[in-house]
Amino acid sequence: MEKFLIDENRVSTVLDNYRRVKENVRAAAVKAGRGENDVRLMCVTKTVEPEYINPVLDSGADLIGENRVQEFLGKKDSLHLEGVEKHLIGHLQTNKVKQIVGEVDLIQSVDSIKLAKEISRVSLNRGITSDILVEVNIGLEESKSGTTLDSLNELLCEIAELPSIKIRGLMTIPPICPEDEARKYFEAMHKAFVDIKAKKQDNINMEILSMGMSGDYEAAIAEGSNIVRVGSAIFGARKYF
Asked: Which secondary-structure segment (H or E) carries 153?
């Protein structure tokens, strides 16, 4: 087997990037009138080798996100995951639910009652409760998954009735657009988040608003996000094989 050669310069760059992004997140939270630790930084590890993830985890990162079930399962045993929260953030197919339930702490990308029912079924069979976020397609893009804002309340109420599943908030990915336009999408999401939270419905807990990525996380924080999902700004441009 060919030995993997670690690029020490890349390790150094990744750590510098992580520290810079972490400070930017802290500063953006304070600027938005919140506590400096009120916004969590998720390190998105899609296509990144464990050798470049572990130095970040060893430096204090406590939240990672993976897009694909198979990729996460394939490298989780090589990661330094003690004390680290793991989220699945990519589109989840119903036939992959049984592989990921119980392996991550939260599934951020629940976009249909069909998927929620399968997560509930598998979780119930395993005697656990799965935490989820409901994904909203805020830009109504055909290429993206997620429910619409108009259908959000109905979907939340349906999911809330299911056993062994706990709704903890919302997630979104806005269209690629200028920052001022992105802020309008983030603002609309935050409004929905606050409105739903005010209803205090059973099993609909609006604790987490996950929005903002490498190119727009500071704008998302300004509009109320409390988890930002940052990959390329930490680990560099993704490599697809």
From this structure: helix 149-160
